[in-house]
Amino acid sequence: DSFGVKSALQKLGVQTENLGTSTGNNWIDSGMEYISSFSPADGELIGKVQVTNRESYDAVVSKAQEAYKTWRNMPAPQRGEIVRQIGNALREVKPELGKLVSYEMGKSYQEGLGEVQEMIDICDFAVGLSRQLYGLTMHSERPGHRMYEQWHPLGIVGIVSAFNFPVAVWSWNSMIAWVCGDVCIWKPSEKAPLSGIACQQITARVFKENGLPEGISSLIVGDYKVGKFMTEDRRVPLISATGSTRMGKIVGQAVAARLGRSLLELGGNNAIIITENADIEIAIRGALFGAVGTAGQRCTSTRRLIIHESIYESIKERLAAAYSKLVIGNPLNEKNHVGPLIDKMAVEMYQKAIEKVKIEGGKEVVAGGVFSGDGYESGCYVKPCIIEAENHFKMVQEETFAPILYIMKYKTLDEAIAMHNGVPQGLSSAIMTLNMREAEAFLSVSGSDCGIANVNIGTSGAEIGGAFGGEKETGGGRESGSDSWKAYMRRQTNTINYSTNLPLAQGIKFDI
Ligand code: UN1
């Protein structure tokens, strides 16, 4: 254990065998079924987690409903104070939690630390927000009347998160939902349940120390079958789900069938347009981290480069040179740039995608492949690759969660933007240019159709202060910063008559 994983697990209270269902730190035994969490870094079993059954799920919901009655009546700034304490608790375990994320999920330790920092940042954001849950006031058309709107919490928020950001995306949802006065039930990814166990214990301690009810924060564990308990449950007014478009369609329809609300953050197919006016150094660096960071497993990963024909060959060469310098290996070893994919199934999908795109006419610029031998025993390490392709290829239209970068060329900016938008997804996007007209055109109404559009930075690595999410098959939801909090609350319009008359709106007369 040269990387200190064992002591990190110990500090975080993660055991080799864990119960998976809890309200606060009240863990409920829910039967015989377990999920085993293996590290893609070395293939070792990290620990087992018990799967939530129907009965324990119902117990969790009852506790959550009960806790909501207390929590919703606590003034929002006081709820913010609790979230401030959670942020501090996260600061205390940043290296350990970053390590667990890195070991369980496979992203580099640096990125694991970055993920925990993202959690700390959203806590700070939520604390400030707790004093800024503003509604508007309106001028009534009737004399002696006042109108305003206020925002109330929804109740239980069900959070379904993905393996690639096993803890940060949960925190975007839960910290905001908590200051809004909601209570949360979280189903972490079944591919990273131990990260969920660790976070649950961190927040539970803070709620307990403050004498608050356990059900403000609950954990359930399992695959889509457990998720279904929530999506079909009318007691859960909002489901916030992050994952594949395939999952989102199922979740969205299940929630819509009961007219519940869903907040979906689904797949991306993010591109960078590199124009002839780009700062090439920045373009290469932005594309490189975007494409290979987190081994291409961010929903914001760069999947396509749309390059002006005049610089296409030189960009191709420089990228290939940069790729040749990448060191792939154990994510906990800081000399490595890129860690493994999440599991062998992901490796298979990566291989199939390369095979298929080659059949369609794709040409390998930097060849892919699977690593084997010393240090690669888990079988999850793959070579980041670059493939010359055309935008309309079936594989290029799909999101493959792996470090495969498709490159293509364009002649005019209009053509580049059309290619850019010519995919079913609409999450993140970027243009590399020092030309003001090109940059503004990309950000204009006829430019990028994505929820995130950047100039001279890559597609990934969004800050928490902005609203995060995207259009089309990305699902339309917005999480994290700006006014995303509104999705976690219900708006109430209030009209108050302080006059001695009862005039009707629209001037309607109704006298008897
Ligand atoms: C995700 O991949 O689901 O913008 C979230 C980024 C990160 C979050 C990604 N801040 O890349």
Report on this model:
- The chain has 512 residues and is α/β, with parallel strands linked by helices.
- It is built from 15 helices and 24 strands.
- It has helices at 5-12, 54-71, 76-92, 94-105, 109-129, 168-180, 193-209, 224-231, 245-257, 280-292, 312-324, 344-359, 394-397, 413-421, 436-443, and strands at residues 17-18, 21-23, 26-28, 34-38, 45-50, 137-138, 145-153, 156-160, 183-187, 217-219, 238-242, 261-265, 270-274, 302-308, 363-366, 385-388, 404-410, 425-426, 428-432, 452-455, 467-468, 471-472, 479-480, 489-497.
- The chain has a seven-stranded mixed beta sheet, sandwiched between helices. A seven-stranded mixed beta sheet has the order 15-16-17-14-13-19-20, with helices on both faces. Strands 1-5-4 form a three-stranded mixed beta sheet, covered by helices on one side.
- β19, α15 (436-443) and β20 form a beta-alpha-beta unit.
- α3 (76-92) packs across α7 and α5 (109-129) runs parallel beside α6.
- The longest helix has 21 residues, at 109-129.
- The chain is globular and about 80 Å long.
- It starts with a helix and ends in a 15-residue tail after the last strand.
- The structure holds 2-aminohexanedioic acid.
- The site of 2-aminohexanedioic acid has 11 residues, from loops.
- Keywords: NAD, Oxidoreductase.
- The active site is at residue 265.
- It comes from Aquiflexum balticum DSM 16537.
